[in-house]
Amino acid sequence: MAGKNKKTSFGPGFLVTAAFIGPGTVTSCSLAGADFGFSLLFVLVFATVTTIILQQMTGRLTLGSGLDLGQSLREFPQHRLSRLFFIVLTLSSIVFGCAAYEAGNIIGGGIGLEIITSLPKRLWVILIASAAVFLLGRRKYKIVEKALVFLVCFMSLSFMMTMILIEPDFSLVLNGFLPTLPANSLYLALALVGTTVVPYNLFLHSSAVKQKWREKSDLGSLNKDLLLSVTLGGFISASIVVTSAVAFHQQGMEVLTGAHLARQLEPLFGSAAKILFGFGFFAAGLSSAITAPYAAAFACSGVLGWKGGQDDKGFRAVWLTVILAGLAVSLLDLKPLSVIVFAQVANGLLLPVASVFLLVVLNDRKRMGGLANNPRQNILGAIIILIVSFLGIWNIIKIFVK
After folding, report:
1. What does the H/E/C string look like for the chain?
2. pTM for this structure?
């Protein structure tokens, strides 16, 4: 088995990166750069490091216990009341978080097609939601998966190439990595955290690790996979902030519509930027519109102990509910970019729930053995929980206290 794993030592971490590089990331990073220049780059550093730490914790949990995160929620708590508490809290967080995320995904895909065509976004969001239902219901996602992944990778690479092409003032870029929160930037800061550290990715990664690796000795491969893939995702996000800061903030321009986002790629593609960005944004939206409800269904299945797999009625009901909830929000007369950013904020608010549970179960030395948390890992986990909790609580306070 060890020899087999060495040949395919990368995988689950790249699934995490592919899942969080969606419309929410492009929109939140673009608005962060347009509104605050390079100032919020340090938030992406925190979000990237946090993602690596939390995903490594879920991977360790799986390697140490042989259970994925959903199964652990059902098996680890010793007392019935604590088990019920974690299950209810986690299920509500997953379903609400994925539904909010789904609205952003569907709207993002619709914006991408609206940029390319003259047809209204409302028509496109209905078609995208219908496509997600069809592909998940018929299990036909693999048919379009490679094309969608290629387009998302192409868009991501385009942002990185554009960042190099525009030659930004790197002394100003480096200043953005110094922790400072400009006035009125907390909302976007939490959105950047929420779009990178996605709670449902903890369940996705845990399930993928269980399928790929079996031995505790595979921890090294897991760590290498995460470090490379998530760092790459953080670099992509940072490149979007930089290109947006140069295209909008330094020019004194605002991002008012989805079509404006494409201007960042004009130095690389010229007049074709709008079409290429539109296809990439659509692909990111559709792929995420399928991933989010799928992840929610798998998480609920593990937590509740459903044995029927993808054919279970409950499994199908969860992903269908998430898609319909996302579609309902998408059809409301709301500002599209605001909905996408709110979805990331919602995930940022729900993040402490998953973090607390991970910290609790990883201290169960009876089950985890040598992969249980050490004092340093507990301190890191506690710091992460405190920071994301503070951001979430402070953001709620700012909503009601002007």
Report:
1. CHHHHHHCCCCHHHHHHHHHCCHHHHHHHHHHHHHHCCCCHHHHHHHHHHHHHHHHHHHHHHHHHCCCHHHHHHHCCCCHHHHHHHHHHHHHHHHHHHHHHHHHHHHHHHHHHHHHCCCCHHHHHHHHHHHHHHHHHCCCHHHHHHHHHHHHHHHHHHHHHHHHHCCCCHHHHHHCCCCCCCCCCHHHHHHHHHHHCCHHHHHHHHHHHHHHCCCHHHHHHHHHHHHHHHHHHHHHHHHHHHHHHHHCHHHCCCCCCHHHHHHHHHHHHHHHHHHHHHHHHHHHHHHHHHHHHHHHHHHHHHHHCCCCHHHCHHHHHHHHHHHHHHHHHHHCCCCHHHHHHHHHHHHHHHHHHHHHHHHHHCCCHHHHHHHCCCHHHHHHHHHHHHHHHHHHHHHHHHHHCC
2. 0.83
